[in-house]
Design brief:
alpha/beta; Rossmann fold; 4 helices
């Protein structure tokens, strides 16, 4: 049923739970996984480039590589092929933009956004409403 599963990741605990469940689902379905990290540059997009924004960009880029590499390691551990992709922009918009070539999105309920809603994080809610493929939202285990 699923050939390609996208798992958007940000390194948060809910994201790690989505990685765990998404990889298990991909293994059971014989699917490939795309681990997607979005460098949320919106917070400093209007700030003129200087050494501080360059440092922040470098930190986000480093965090992105560490985060998607975590998914690759977990995938290898259970025998699931994982591709990686790091993009810049608004997280929900980039996840939706990348949803077209995938059969399923598996993401956590709340990441690291400051404006979390009661049931879903704002990113998860946007993705659920606008993605072009089915979305599985994973709650963090207590």
């Amino acid at each position: 049923m699923y050939e390609k599963v996208i798992i958007p990741v940000d390194g948060s605990e809910p994201s790690k739970e989505a990685v765990k469940q998404g990889l298990e689902l991909a293994k059971a379905a014989g699917a490939k996984v795309l681990a997607l990290y979005v460098m949320d540059t919106t917070a400093f997009a209007s700030i003129p480039p200087d050494s501080l924004t360059t440092d922040i960009y470098s930190l986000l880029n480093k965090e992105g590589h560490e985060t998607v590499n975590y998914v690759v390691r977990e995938g290898k551990r259970i025998g699931v092929y994982v591709e990686t992709k790091i993009v810049e922009g608004v997280p929900s918009e980039q996840i939706i933009k990348n949803s077209g070539r995938n059969d399923l999105i598996v993401l956590g309920t709340k990441g690291r956004t400051g404006l979390e809603k009661i049931l879903l994080g704002s990113v998860a809610e946007n993705v659920v409403h606008h993605a072009s493929c089915p979305v599985m939202v994973v709650r963090k285990s207590d």
